[in-house]
Amino acid sequence: VQLVESGGGSVQAGGSLRLSCAVSGRTFSINGMGWYRQAPGKQRELVATFTSGCGSSNYPRFAISRDNAKKTIYLQMNSLKPEDTAVYYCKMGACWGLGTQVTVSS
Predict the structure, then answer these.
(1) Using CB atoms within 10 A of its CB, is residue 80 exposed (0-12), middle (13-18) or buried (19+)?
(2) Which of 24, 33, 38, 63 is the most buried (most CB within 10 A)?
(3) Are β-strands 45-51 and 9-12 bridged in parallel, bridged antiparallel, or unpaired?
(4) Where are the extended beta strands (E) located within 25-85?
(5) pLDDT value at 62 more than 90
(6) Contact residues for 47 (Cβ-Cβ < 8 A; gap 6+)
(7) Cα separations (Å) of 20 from 3, 9, 42, 85, 106?
(8) CA 15, CA 84: separation in Å to the nearest integer?
(9) Strand pairing category for 86-92 and 95-96
């Protein structure tokens, strides 16, 4: 199983981005699958996840969604702030993607 994130980039504050995480291989276990982020000098933190099939986010500006047919989950990020700058990682079970960089400038 491999997880491949995409959709990161550089945006100005107030902008939006949608991250994608595509899962290769047979397994696509949505429960517990989620997005994490790690800013420079900080610990990795949970951003949004699926629990019992339902998505929840620790940030009201962010929303997690999925497309089972494409074996892909998404993170829609709106009203981005400079403090959202981080590498964003997708996680499924014990597997992590390599991450995608999000940079928000003021």
Answers:
(1) buried
(2) 33
(3) unpaired
(4) 34-38, 45-51, 54-57, 62-67, 72-77
(5) yes
(6) 34, 35, 36, 37, 57, 58, 59, 62, 75, 88
(7) 10, 12, 23, 17, 24
(8) 11
(9) antiparallel
Burial class (CB in 10 A: 0-12, 13-18, 19+), 73: buried
Task: Report residue 27's pLDDT band, with 50, 70 and 90 as the boundaries.
Answer: confident
How confident is the model at residue 33, as a pLDDT?
92
Give helix then strand counts, H and E, for the chain.
Answer: 0, 11
* Collapsed DSSP state (helix, strand, coil) of residue 61: coil
Q: What pLDDT was estimated at residue 12?
A: 98
SS3 of residue 95 by DSSP? strand
Confidence of residue 1 (pLDDT cuts 50, 70, 90): confident
Please tell me the predicted confidence (pLDDT) of residue 87. Answer: 98
Q: How many Cα atoms sit within 13 Å of 79 on the Cβ side? A: 5
